[in-house]
Amino acid sequence: MDFELTEEQRQIRATVADFGEREIKPHAPRWDREELFPRAVVQKIGKLGFLGVAFPEQYGGGGADTLSQVIVVEGLARYDAGIALSCAAHMSLSSGHIATFAAEEHRTRYLPDMLAGRKLGAWCLTEPGSGSDAAAMITRAVRSGDDFTLNGSKMFITNGSVADVYVVMALTDAGAGRSGVSAFIVERGSAGLGNGRKIEKLGLHSSDTAEVIFENVEVPARNLIGEPGAGYRQTLQVLEAGRIGIAGWAIGIARGAMEDAAGYAKERRQFGQAIADFQAIQWMLADMATRIEASWMLTCRAAALKDRGLAFGRAASMAKLFASETAMWSTIKAVQIHGGYGYVTELPVERYMRDAKLSEIGEGTSEVQRLIIAKSLLRDGYSAE
Ligand SMILES: Cc1cc2nc3c(=O)[nH]c(=O)nc-3n(C[C@H](O)[C@H](O)[C@H](O)COP(=O)(O)OP(=O)(O)OC[C@H]3O[C@@H](n4cnc5c(N)ncnc54)[C@H](O)[C@@H]3O)c2cc1C
User: Fold this and answer.
1) pLDDT band at 3 (very low <50, low <70, confident <90, very high)
2) pLDDT value of position 2
3) In the chain, at which end, N or C, are there fewer CB atoms within 10 A of the end residue's CB?
4) Is the C-alpha dihedral spanning 374, 379, 381, 385 positive or negative?
5) DSSP for residue 142
6) Residues in a beta bridge with 212
7) What is the pTM of this model?
8) Fold entry, domain 7-120
């Protein structure tokens, strides 16, 4: 087992950190305050090759491994979790779905622009009435000649009002349950494709989240991804891979909280000494560092299993579960270490806490991760190989 990053991975980490310091950190408070999605910055991230880092070179990707993509998402989330979430959804969900399951014609048509950041993707599964139980969706795709007609609405979609390419799950056979779900590519500008009201959120203000509405949207039958009825199986695999990225995303937030809290603790003086001298503060920092390191190890393991072509679903759920709870715990403790200054918007630490909460909800809640882990444990037994 190798715990060292490769030279290439170190370079990616350093380049993302440099970009984050210069292009994100100074502006993140304003994007949060003004609820602004900085599309030009995401385009720059694409131009630098970060959005395609782990995709095949033939479509303009970097051909690197899964951990390299995690390093990108972690490094962006360290500075702005909203931008990082928009990039993670674009990479792992929409681009990932197309790269893994779409026909060659679709890959060559969409991926080069998506990986370069010229086109943004959104992945539409959740509906107003169906979240954890995604197969209970009611959006329909009815075939008529060479087209499918889509009707329904999708909820909480990242990049939902700004995307160019939508991967949409819809029922082609309403009576068939999970086997009736199919996946489609829908392009921006399609007649009948629109957005509902603006969704106001607790955090992640620099990430666009929208309701996406389909009113008699005609989609050519060739835009079906894979076979009719394969959409749900595809979705489960896309989410498994996505969870490795979300684990990295949560680690980035937790690391930001820890670094800011450690810096503040060394500066802030009470009772004639730096608060970092108090054991109560040191223990919180020690626990943050330990949980972050453990999250990273779980994430590396899931990424390594995936790249070796082995089953990685349980490992990805463990990484996502542990990293999410680490992010939430660490950001709450970071606010505590900052005292009153942690509670006000002058410093970014309260933003980290608001942003972190989504990690326990998106791409499968913590309860759903525990269900997946327990189901696998009870079916296959435990092995730490
Ligand atoms: C900012 C943001 C961005 C998002 N981006 C996207 C996106 O890009 N694409 C997309 O498709 N979706 C997206 N989502 C949706 C997200 O994936 C869902 O919110 C999430 O899967 C949970 O679904 P739900 O909100 O319907 O909650 P519900 O499923 O209604 O869950 C409510 C509560 O019940 C619990 N629960 C549900 N079932 C069980 C069970 N069997 N056992 C125990 N507890 C259970 C849950 O854990 C939770 O605590 C996003 C959401 C947000 C907030």
Assistant:
1) confident
2) 78
3) C
4) negative
5) E
6) 154, 195
7) 0.97
8) Butyryl-Coa Dehydrogenase, subunit A; domain 1 (1.10.540)
Q: Which architecture, in CATH terms, is 232-380?
A: Up-down Bundle (1.20)
* Smallest CA separation from ligand 1 atom 45, residue: 367
pLDDT in tens, 130-172: 999 999 999 999 999 999 999 999 999 999 999 999 999 999 9
Please check whether residue 55 is in contact with residue 114, taking contact to mean a CB–CB distance below 8 angstroms.
no
Per-residue pLDDT tens over the stretch 198-208: 899 999 999 99
CA–CA gap between residue 207 and residue 214 (Å, rounded): 22
Among protein residues, the one with the nearest Cα to ligand 1's atom 30 is 131
For 37-52, what is each residue's pLDDT tens digit? Answer: 999 999 999 999 999 9
* Selected catalytic residue, list 127, 350, 363, 367: 363
CATH code of 122-228, in short, is 2.40.110.10
Ligand 1 pocket at CB < 6 A: 89, 123-126, 131-132, 156-158, 201, 204, 209, 358, 361-365, 367-368, 371
Catalytic residue flag (residue 363)? yes
Q: Whose CA is nearest to atom 24 of ligand 1?
A: 131
**Domain boundary assignment for the chain:** 7-120, 122-228, 232-380
**Selection from 149, 151, 150, 152 nearest residue 130 by Cα:** 152
